[in-house]
Amino acid sequence: MNIEKIRADFPVLQKKVDGKQFSYFDSACTTLKPRQVLDAMNAYYTEYTGCAGRSVHKFARRTEEEFAKARSKAAKFINAPPSEIIWTKNTTEAINLVAHGLKFNPGDRIITTNLEHSSGLLPWQAVAEKGAVLDFVLCSKEGEFNPEDFKKKLGRKTRLVSAIHSSNVTATTSPLKEIAKIAHDAGALVLADCAQSVPHFPIDVKSLGIDFLAFSGHKMLGPTGIGCLYGREDLLKKLNPMLLGGETIKDATLQAHVLEDLPDRLEAGIQNYAGAIGLGAAVDYLSGIGMQDIEDYEKNISKALVEGLLAIPQVSLLGPKDFKKRGSLASFSVKGMEPHDIALMLNDRNFFLRSGMHCAYPIHKFLGLPKGSVRASLYLYNSADEVKLFIENLSQIIKTFS
Amino acid sequence: MVLCLVALLVFAVLSIWSAKYRVLAKEAFGCVAKMVTFKPCDVRLETKIKAKVASKLMIVPALARFFYKYFKALSWAFTIAFFASLAYSAYSIYNLLVFGTCTPGEPCAITGFAGLCILVIEQYAAYAIIAVMIIAVAYFLLKKQKKEK
Ligand SMILES: Cc1ncc(COP(=O)(O)O)c(C=O)c1O
User: Fold this and answer.
1) How far apart are CA A321 and CA A142, in angstroms?
2) Integer Cα distance of B98 and A134 in angstroms
3) How far apart are CA B103 and CA B109, in angstroms?
4) Do A344 and B52 touch (CB under 8 A)?
5) Are A161 and A190 in contact (CB under 8 A)?
6) Residue A189 CB burial class (10 angstroms; 0-12, 13-18, ≥19)
7) Where are the beta strands (DSSP E) in A281-323?
8) Please, are residues A393 and A347 in contact by the beta-carbon 8 Å criterion?
9) pTM over 0.90
10) For chain A, which domains are there?
11) Known active-site residue A194
């Protein structure tokens, strides 16, 4: 992987902030966007603006083609057929769509975990308020799951297991394949929150054997406001649409309507065409480099990050200490210092990190960190030199204040 | 939390000249608004001030550490001193306008010019602040010397 060539593709990386170089270590929140993505979106607005599936003119037809191509690209990226991809705003909307769309009876059980992002927890809490029973599998203090714990929780009445794939806090990846097998053996469906996995390593829904998968475009070089729900076709057909309106119906009278086929019935109103086309360009960009190469490269820079953090005595790293068991982010706390203070001091030195709860309250509470943690999250455009400089600066700050 | 009040006043005045301070004044206003309506106060502004000042003080690590560790106490002390001096100044201006002198009963050195008059009134306070600063700097220098030995 040619890091210099990659960095040259990102317009924002050519800029300086307050006259100095900066390091963007907040890709788990949202990633930077390459020129190729911006150009593809711009082309929709400057060359062929139109509505897909409605008007018959040339611009509309071109929009329809590009929109369909984007769906195929997103589908291929996770080894799914295009008919099983539904456009959403983001991961959050994708999970809510399933939570709202599946019919749960009072007493039906939903199993999730204490490692979930709010997006993977709150929708199920809402379902539980209507009578379903919510139960949890707890991870270890390092953020790892034992598939046997899922087995113990699953029962005859379990309808769904919803689990995070890669954690945005502990950087661990759940044994999704085993979880899916256990859940299916018990007759339950499986939804995976792949917001932090799809952008970083190859994902194959068929080999994982899951029923639903959610991810966001903006965490994988794409624009904000676009995401995907993958769902098995027979299950998507059974989902109750969360929104109704233009494009979701075949016919309507004053009293009733007939729902459209998939995917239209679940995609109400004019869609985010530019967003989908941008996500398609992001998929092209990542596939062009190769997801396996991206994963290998990230492992390398994460190794330097983890080793650097572990060498600072006041730092407590969240998640496993073995970098091989981790993704490309590292959350940590520092003895005697508050997470926001550290992030702000690093911000002063042009290192952009996230601090706080990272929308994952239960896991921080479980780990005894009521004020959260600081998180450095890397992506393909970060270099080993940046990581080295970051560790030096962090050490200096900690030496002074901790 | 208390620092929001000071920040609001200081940034509001500075924002007359600079747009940069207008943003901070707005943020401080939001914080004060939350404070007076008893909503949970947004701690971000104070956290930002704390981190920014502590960062800048890192050239004298001991001072930075002291500031970081005792930020809460320092911000209270600063806020009280700020409002006390504000009240004192207002009182002096009132005296100057009503009695023609800042300290009725005592001769005022320069009664015709409010700004200078306030300076005279506050000179004892200024001496006290300078003395505290000298003691603090001496303390840190001594501590540093001790550490180097
Ligand atoms: C693991 C995980 N799930 C879900 C989300 C929510 O993503 P979005 O805000 O794009 O819906 C995030 C975002 O940080 C995340 O890290």
Assistant:
1) 9
2) 73
3) 10
4) yes
5) yes
6) buried
7) 315-317
8) no
9) no
10) 3-31+290-401 (3.90.1150.10), 38-287 (3.40.640.10)
11) no
Determine the Cα–Cα distance for residues A145 and B57; give it in Å rounded to an integer.
44
- Chain A nearest-CA distance from B60, in A, is 9
Distance between CA atoms of residues A328 and A322, nearest Å: 12
Evaluate whether B126 touches B89 at the Cβ level (below 8 Å).
no
Which regions of A171-298 does DSSP assign to beta strands (E)?
189-193, 212-216, 227-231, 249-252, 257-259
Q: Which residue has the tokens 């019919």?
A: A103
Residue A357 · residue A336 · CB < 8 Å: no
pLDDT in tens, A86-130: 999 999 999 999 999 999 999 999 999 999 999 999 999 999 999
Say yes or no: CB of residue A333 within 6 Å of ligand 1: no
Cβ atoms of A350 and A17 within 8 Å: the answer is yes
Amino acid in the structure at residue A307: E
ipTM reported for the complex surpasses 0.90: no
Q: Quick one: tokens of A82? A: 């295009």
Secondary structure (DSSP) of A79-118: T--GGGEEEESSHHHHHHHHHHHS---TT-EEEEETT--G
Nearest ligand 1 atom to the CA of A91 is: 11
Backbone angles phi, psi at A251, to 5 degrees: -155, 155
**With a 6 A CB cut-off, is A31 part of the ligand 1 pocket?**
no
Q: Is A352 on the interface with B (CB under 8 A)?
A: no
Backbone angles phi, psi at A332, to 5 degrees: -155, 160
Question: Which atom of ligand 1 is the closest one to the Cα of A216?
Answer: 10
**φ/ψ of residue A166, rounded to 5:** -115, 135
Instruction: Report chain A residues whose CB lies below 8 A from the CB of B50.
Output: 341
pLDDT along chain B (149 residues), means of 10: 70 72 76 66 73 89 90 79 78 78 60 49 62 70 69
Amino acid (1-letter code) at residue A203: I
Residue spans of the domains in chain B: they are 1-68
